[in-house]
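This follows on from our talk about sequence and fold. Please put the record directly below this note.
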Amino acid sequence: MKACKYSKKWQLKLQERISWQTS
């Protein structure tokens, strides 16, 4: 569903942010 897709995109963005912060 759309919600699932959105959630996945959001999770990816969150992970990227964490990775950038830890970097």
Notes: The CA atoms of residues 2 and 8 lie 10 Å apart.
